User: Fold these one by one.
Assistant:
Number 1:
Amino acid sequence: MYTDTVAGNGGDFIIQGDVCWSAGPHTLEIKPDSFLVCKGGKSAGVFEQLPQQYANLPLSCYRGRLVIPGLVDLHTHAPQFVYRGLGMDMELLDWLTSHAFPEEVKYHDLAYAGKAYHFFVEHLKHGPNTRILVYATIHVPATLLLMNMLEESGLVSMVGKINMDRNCPDGLREESAAASLSATREWLEAYAARQDRYVNTKPILTPRFIPSCSDDLLRGLGAMRHELKLPVQSHLSENRKEVEWVRKLYPASEGYGAVYREFDLLGSAPPQEAAPTVMAHCVWSDEREINLLAERRVFAAHCPQSNANLASGIAPVRRLLNAGVPVGLGSDVAGGTNCSIFRAMSDAIQVSKLRRTVLNVDEKPLSLEESFYLGTAGGGAFFGKAGMGYSGSFEPGADFDALVINDNTLAAPFNLSIRDRLEQAINIYDNHHIEAKYVRGRLIS
Amino acid sequence: MYTDTVAGNGGDFIIQGDVCWSAGPHTLEIKPDSFLVCKGGKSAGVFEQLPQQYANLPLSCYRGRLVIPGLVDLHTHAPQFVYRGLGMDMELLDWLTSHAFPEEVKYHDLAYAGKAYHFFVEHLKHGPNTRILVYATIHVPATLLLMNMLEESGLVSMVGKINMDRNCPDGLREESAAASLSATREWLEAYAARQDRYVNTKPILTPRFIPSCSDDLLRGLGAMRHELKLPVQSHLSENRKEVEWVRKLYPASEGYGAVYREFDLLGSAPPQEAAPTVMAHCVWSDEREINLLAERRVFAAHCPQSNANLASGIAPVRRLLNAGVPVGLGSDVAGGTNCSIFRAMSDAIQVSKLRRTVLNVDEKPLSLEESFYLGTAGGGAFFGKAGMGYSGSFEPGADFDALVINDNTLAAPFNLSIRDRLEQAINIYDNHHIEAKYVRGRLIS
């Protein structure tokens, strides 16, 4: 069902600038005033001297600009964008009831969905993220509309029609597990019927979280992911009260993550090869749950701003990394107020230091190199595993997702190293500093 | 020496818009489509119907815009602005040594200082803060230059020439207590000699912090503040290692705050009436220190972003407020990366929730109303006590510091209440949303 199409047809070209990317969690590759070559929507490498074979390709000159990979958002909610920054003095479950759920009900109205999703997609086009994992709502037409709009934008995305059939308000609660599953098939068939239209957009199965999905629904989704080779996204161990709720619902289970596992919605272990799973948050995951994630090769989407805003806590990112869990970053709008993964990188470093100080735990805080890696190659690997080409790197073969940052506007009375300029981009720039944005070799803004 | 001159001579006028301000820590005053009257640089009140007596005043129409008091920054470092966002994966004392101190040495060069301070002042002019407490460096000419540039900008500020004569690198360590004190007198006399030029700018005594000032220097500054009726700013209980350092330096003292008290640099208790003192951070202040601050009517400048960035911790703001300590907000650039007190308001709420969750303490998080109060009237009161007129309110008699926020650019598919628009301003707006900025009745940007 999913072939790795290369998008954009931007043709082959070269951009010249101060190029910087992650060669790994601890290593920045820095190539001052170099040539980044795009062939067929993928990187053909970075060269200090332009090889003869590329001499005739068109060149965009961004000398003196910072050129880095596009950022990857592994967790966001499209219908929450329009009220981001509201209800920020509440905790998760209250906020869901007072803000998230009442808004999502409106998306049965396609006209309303069109207006609201337009604001979301336009904002993303002008931000630093080039690929995103998105939650829509339970509504099939609105979810397809969002997929069309994202495809139109040139961004790379996986979009999920939410499943929820219990513990949620009327208007958002699907009638039954069967109704939820058949709506999901209807959505996937509508997508498949027009798949030629979708080069950069794919569906991802999206049970909202354990408390909102019945056993039959979870079981049905577990079967569907294997039948259709679909990736899965959901929420895991975000907030103490929520974890306690799951424990009450499944007293016999080993924990929150184990419940997903029991319904076969939690990654896969060798020799089995399923499409990948990503779990958002993992703030309260204990050692056993962390090991389960590592063993099942489940990605964790770390959402530092949302976890602070909703008083969820500070995720044990160092422990996740040490255990070998693949980690990326998420904005979690509107638990997070800011769509930019630059902000998530900045916050991830900040809360890792706060965690050590406030909890007095002996965990090394995240370095600039690590945080940059998580928000680029770390998250970009998920797209690779889902058959959409990996991003977040300029190694030959990586999808050509690139940002050109104009930091000349940020005058300083001294010269900054490229690493320093990257650190300032992460900590203080806004969308106005983005001079150009390429996705899969196509200039989209 | 210090008279309360009204600045700006913007004449008398009216602005019309959706007006909102803090009537107290728990109360927002909200006046849709109302008239805010400026007379002689001060507010004459807010009116739903324009009184006849003002009918002939010029009116600026900002209908549909949000009109709020200017924000107040009680703690920032001017020479750190140009490298904000750098070294953010370090802790306080390492960061001081690697970033803060080496940069400050350069300010003996007036040409360099002029270039660097120009970036700082221009940035502030276009941000939401209308009054600031600023640390300069030890250098008299550069400190006077900064005061001139701030006066020119139209912002209201108190600026401090830093005192430090021990435990700091060559080039920043003043030769002796006597040398530091006489440089301070030289600075104050130069200011006084040209005082007619300074309508919005005043000096504030600024011992950097206890570890960098000898006993003789602290004693001399304690005497000078009374002789010249000067306000004082310094740092208190910011970081665990720093608190430990002070304990080693003054083993006989009751604590960090008590050391300032012993040198008579810590506010005043009735019947004594000294100019006010503000202490930045107070992250590790225990109950005894908090009570000392309350008893001496010392202002606390809460700097949530910096305290997280430098791994200092989360200040016990609820305890400070409960004890009756007057609290305002600080950006603490460059420990904080962002000059905007909107960001400080947002972070103050966020870390107050995080503190409760992560430390599991039973302290009510800050509400939107409280955080807005701290960043406006809370900090504005310090300027009132220092004889510069108070701000942060539109009650008749308050200095006319006002921001006009254009949030029409932030389209949403529904109507927001004025309180919601204020919350979004705090959480997601940037300087591009500021349509007009008045300080003491004068339009400065």
Number 2:
Amino acid sequence: MHSAPPHVLTAGLTLLAILIAAIAMGLFRKPLDRVYITGGSSGLGRALAVELVRRGAHVTVVARDLRKLEETTAALKPLASPSQLISHISADLTSAESSEAALNDAVVAWGGKAPDHVYLCAGFSRPKFFVDMDAQHMKEGLDGVYWVSAYTAHAAVKRMVAQRVRGKIVFVSSFLGYTTFAGYTSYSPGKYALRGLADALRSEMLLHNISVHIFMSAGILGPGFDAENEHKPAITRKIEEGDKPDEPEVVMRAMISGIEKGHYQITNLLITDLIRVGAAGPVPGNGPLDFVYSLIGGIEIGDDLSPILPAPTAFAF
Amino acid sequence: MHSAPPHVLTAGLTLLAILIAAIAMGLFRKPLDRVYITGGSSGLGRALAVELVRRGAHVTVVARDLRKLEETTAALKPLASPSQLISHISADLTSAESSEAALNDAVVAWGGKAPDHVYLCAGFSRPKFFVDMDAQHMKEGLDGVYWVSAYTAHAAVKRMVAQRVRGKIVFVSSFLGYTTFAGYTSYSPGKYALRGLADALRSEMLLHNISVHIFMSAGILGPGFDAENEHKPAITRKIEEGDKPDEPEVVMRAMISGIEKGHYQITNLLITDLIRVGAAGPVPGNGPLDFVYSLIGGIEIGDDLSPILPAPTAFAF
């Protein structure tokens, strides 16, 4: 063995010094994630904003109510490092124009770069019997469930594809986007429609390295849930009496965990998984456990008004 | 044994004569079915109108194009008896107001009585990539698939329930309302949404003795299909190259047969049945064969762009 000649040692040390300086200057640092969250001022969207700010992302929350947005960013900023950009935009996301305008506003802070993570958490539910609602209620239901997410997805995907940004589009549907019952004729069509959009978009986005996910959430506690219950028909309430909605933080963790596992249709309840394997169709499943769920069996509704567990009237196959 | 006294015989013969006269006068005859068919001037809707006129129903067809409507009623009238009422109404069914107005017009001929059979066959498909469409294309897609049926269903159900008319509401969705792929982001959301509406409405209508059906049709030959193919992206065409669309009459017979069997979700292709048992969720199935279909297995899409049979990349369970 012999020691390295002094000039080789000097060159090595110089290179090492340059590398350390480059790391210190952030030249090798991955740029921060640009996260765009609709419905980000309350419930699931806000819980997600808190978590992703803690994880070091740039976060823009979008919602309608300016006061709640201001309150949200005031709560988010203390959690952020000085390099993280935290902002909010007030917009009516049921309109295509203002959905696109909101996104255009958001990207200004990112030097025009498209978001790389889009979480579509906006939406609301107002259960009512079909025979008791007017056409306006039907239209507002679809606007507030489907368009509120579809227009933003469209604006974001177009910008991401144009800039070759690889990222994620995450829709939020519902257990009631797999199957449904009396009381949800103005809600479930939009939640099913989101699944139709996600199923088709997932396929198209394989061409562009953008991953699409859809979270089939069970009930989430909060002001949205309280408003939903205010006018819920008695029969709908009866069908759901076994349900146990979760806190937004718990639901948010299930959603992030599903995304991290690479699941396409993400669930947060065993019964949703049972329904998923019998209702998702031939889109990608979530792994070997799906086989176990399929053995537990497809659940079939009988002709009664308790169409879901815990009181099914017939188990088929 | 002894013969009946003459006055008993006379009374019996008189009763018999009254009964024969009553039958001849139609007093015991079931009133003719009042049938309302949207999209009734072409394709599936028109084939259905022809068949139901032949079966002796009152039939009103609704569509936008007045010339095609006039041509349709001219073809229907020679098939009808003098007691059958055949008429047409031109209306834009993507608007709630004109959907309701069209129904109000239709019932005038029936003395204000609600239809007892409503067939929702209107709709169109214009495949396009999500990244290539504008928001107007998205909106027109949903209007022309979802609202074109949902508003009429709403107006009809309200009138039927108010008059305690027992009858049927039949939606027309699609194979692409179970699962979908690149090219259908403006079409499948509406077809999924119709399934969401039908699933919730089926449950609510158990309270009112109205049966709800949804026909998950495979491709139907005709002008609608030709228009769909005109701008179809090459990838979408490739995915569908194994498909064999049927003539409207063949499809119509499958739909009527499904209704007669009491199926809730009606199919007209083996592969649709395979998808149905893995995509319908816990709504009522179509009988013992469903078990066989479930054994053939859930079909899972791999991460490629041939997401449906005949070339699936993975079979799960």
Number 3:
Amino acid sequence: MGALTLRLPSLTSLSSAAAAAALPRYHFCRQLCAPLRSVSAAKFSVQSSTVEKEIAATPPEIEPASLLPRLQLEKDRVITPRSQDFNAWYLDIIAKAELADYGPVRGTMVIRPYGYAIWEAIQDYLNVKFKETGHSNMYFPQFIPYSFIEKEASHVEGFSPELALVTVGGGKELEEKLVVRPTSETIVNHMFTQWINSYRDLPLMINQWANVTRWEMRTKPFVRTLEFLWQEGHTAHASLEEAEEEALQMIDVYTKFAYEQAAIPVVVGRKSKVETFAGASKTYTIEAMMGDRKALQAGTSHNLGQNFSRAFGTQFMDENGERQHVWQTSWAISTRFIGGIIMTHGDDAGLMLPPNLAPIQVVVVPIWKKADEKAGVLGASSSVKETLQAAGIKVKLDDAEQRTPGWKFNFWEMKGVPLRIEIGPRDVSNGSVVVCRRDIPGKQGKVFGISMESSSLVAYVKGKLDEVQSSLLENAKSFRDSNIVDVRSYSELKEAIAQGKWARGPWSASDTEELKVKEETGATIRCFPFEQPEGAKKCLMTGNPADEVAIFAKSY
Amino acid sequence: MGALTLRLPSLTSLSSAAAAAALPRYHFCRQLCAPLRSVSAAKFSVQSSTVEKEIAATPPEIEPASLLPRLQLEKDRVITPRSQDFNAWYLDIIAKAELADYGPVRGTMVIRPYGYAIWEAIQDYLNVKFKETGHSNMYFPQFIPYSFIEKEASHVEGFSPELALVTVGGGKELEEKLVVRPTSETIVNHMFTQWINSYRDLPLMINQWANVTRWEMRTKPFVRTLEFLWQEGHTAHASLEEAEEEALQMIDVYTKFAYEQAAIPVVVGRKSKVETFAGASKTYTIEAMMGDRKALQAGTSHNLGQNFSRAFGTQFMDENGERQHVWQTSWAISTRFIGGIIMTHGDDAGLMLPPNLAPIQVVVVPIWKKADEKAGVLGASSSVKETLQAAGIKVKLDDAEQRTPGWKFNFWEMKGVPLRIEIGPRDVSNGSVVVCRRDIPGKQGKVFGISMESSSLVAYVKGKLDEVQSSLLENAKSFRDSNIVDVRSYSELKEAIAQGKWARGPWSASDTEELKVKEETGATIRCFPFEQPEGAKKCLMTGNPADEVAIFAKSY
């Protein structure tokens, strides 16, 4: 029903779809070469020579006179509206909310404390889940002999264009150049081969939190950087079935994390052969729809089969005394996920963080005008802060005197803090506070007269945080669902993609045809979703019977 | 009094001290070039070609016949006694306890789960302390333009021989070669320069957990590896006094950590000019005495003065509107600390871990002979495990059936687990357990008849863990104190060093004389300890007045 409604526009604009099809190289080139970029987007790809000073750092009101012109300029510089230029908005948020900055080397990123705190929240959650599912953390060296990378054929093909190579160490040219790890399957297998003897050493299930390097040409803070932080899980099993179960278990951990912590309603599924990880037999993925409706691959879990164990001779003695190659998985989530959070929930006012991952869940803003009100308001604000902190809520009291309450409201909204508590002289005499939701703008998100009494305030705030968390997920869900179009033909697919939407349709065509879609529309198969419609299906491209629907979309 | 007693031996063995002085080149060369090394020590410096299989991984009793000869060999291979060959003992422990393994690239190390769990315990403690003292975590890129390293004169002099350089990226020769960070002062200052405008941006206090690379020629697992993990704190302040206060605060955090968590009674003090960090004005250090009485520099905190801020132009506008260079600190503790823990507490039986950092604090070993005893013993063991776990104690139940209890006792002693609980059929009927301390061998460390009743068992175990923790510290303290000799002359110093001890004596001589001591004895000034004796002092070398005593020792 919805599918039918959504398909209609494609009929009324066949001409523009045809025009788009006539310019395949242009579309493809836009995707790969990005000839046109906004000024702010371009900054990340060149060495940052101009200094970005944020207004937050130095209050212009009391700045020495010599600095005033520069700051005045910045005061006027607001965040580009999301609706106007999504990319500029994204980069503005990252700068203004002090999430990250450009490193001195092209494409590298400095993760600033506020951005890093989101990463720490991601780590805290996943680390517990990884341990609960039987994995131990460890650490592998980041320098990998070049010969290792060459051992698995499709792996070297996939990664060799992106490698950073160390050729000099301690002042001397090295005999064998070293790869700065782009991922660790090869060195992991080199070690697993030494640690695994018999079936009793299996399953071997480990994880590492590490930095990785991929020499990317087009970079964008968090989404794609030369160096990024991630976790990479690596496991070895005695059977294909066990490896498959593990790969599925971990994509499920990621899916739950995305829904429950990040409030991102990812679509979980299997990658097409073309999009499968270099060296894997199967890749499972969680795909998130960003605010501009482009897809972001937010986490992957690979069933590696015996590809690496055969390349590295990773064998075990089975229960019958036969030597067998182990079956393996690997899975990863990276700092890219932070980009996904920004682009899923943010709005024109700035960042909007899900309470479960927010470094600051509640900001308390005291408001007073007359000198004799100050002590009472600050005292109450401070005691509210203590109360919430003692209850395990991440709370900040903003009692800076050089800023107006209005400035603070805007600032903490821009920083994405889920709840704001306002306390003025009248609230103090009433023993109550005002609670404002970041996700509901203006008066509608404001509730007056919430009691300051500890236990009721804590319960109220916790409840509100839960509401915001659910509400972010629900909003993202409806946005996602209203932007996935069911298609039955290639022309419907093209129309959906041209409208910036995701196209979902039956697919059993060849790799070549998949690549043709990419070239002609800029869209790729994001996944064959686990959730499949019932009934017989015909391939949207060939009309042949198809087992599954695939989702096509443009992506980051 | 103690000093007098300890000085006596030096008088009775002047001749051997003179003999040592006659061979200065030999001593110096031993320190720097290590021409003679034991077979196990040498392994770490060459690519590990032979596979080290640990007996723990596969029980020989039920191994397929084909593997028996190899495993038999390893079963016979015990840990080298500490007293016989300290270095071989150290490497054996690392292999047998599965703390680490050799990476494929010379001098690199794989930190295995049991070793990494110690690192996680170190991180958990320090992370809280860093945040309590006002620092935020963040992350800087690891690739640093080569030109940055050259900006601070003594920094480049100190680090240039140890750099790993990336010269190729994405298949192309780079225009400017990139340094893989050996430490981050330069890139930190590059960014601080962009973030700091006015005195209101100060202090800026951050920390990062990261990997660093130093192209070391002589490597040893944990102690000195090509790549290692660490935290590096970096701060910027408005005055020298504030920077000094911060540098002292952080060395104090490290000192408390060493004493209270690692049970290592470090000597805290200031480095000599010769030993100061490349680029620092002052370096504070914690020096630990290992079981072979060599010193290990276990953590450092630097007052960087304005050295980096001048090199990078890191300035702020002070309250009078004047531009000033910031005053800075940096401070670090690394995975080297794990080597310090091993070499401080371990004994002939293996590792001995301080309860506060032990990945497993208590191991429960069920003991039964007859089939009808099994269920009762296993049930009781399992319930003891649950009880302790619920109380927040890190406990492991070793119910593997293919191992004898005796084998398990040795194994978990070797792994350094502080407490063992034994539960046999008689214990089950008595409702009691046997508790054995790792640090007191044999029957003396064994207490029978400890009630299984939850609350009393938890209290007993917690009390015992505290006792072990204190006892490790006390033992290390007496060992340290009995091996520091107060010296008044160079000949007394040489005598003490020749005996493998630390020499403490007044020092106000020149850098040249300090280097002469190093060349002639192999010992360096470890620090001028904060704890100084009262009264007038005369330099042990020159007889001139001296303000302070210094501690000389051979070191790792």
